[in-house]
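Re: the request from the purification team.
They wanted to know what the chain is likely to look like in 3D before they choose a buffer screen. I agreed to run a prediction and write the result into the notebook, where they can find it.
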Amino acid sequence: MISLVDLLEEVCDCGCKVCTVPIEEAEYQGKKVELNKVKRGGDSKKFYVYVKDGDKVKKVSFGAKGMSIKTKDSDRRKNFKSRFNCDNPGPKTKARYWSCRMWSGPDAIKNMLKK
């Protein structure tokens, strides 16, 4: 069964808010996954997220395992944002976008990992 969001994306590609509603679930390598929901763990990195890349679903892994993230320190946030060019983070399909979101504020990690 096709969802309303999928139908709108197929019929209309104007980019308006109605047509670009985020899809909540998709299938990745045979299993149902939540899109744009950051999770801890993963194969080789600290976090991962599934995103829609065109008509495919892509797994984006980011963050160094074993490193702590101290986003409450404003000087660290400022330095990270300058190193990673967070003023222009790029598309959602890149690790830099999600890393920049993690460092966006003092409680960003806690808010992004909420269930």
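For the purification team: The two ends are 27 Å apart (CA to CA).
Please add any questions underneath this entry.
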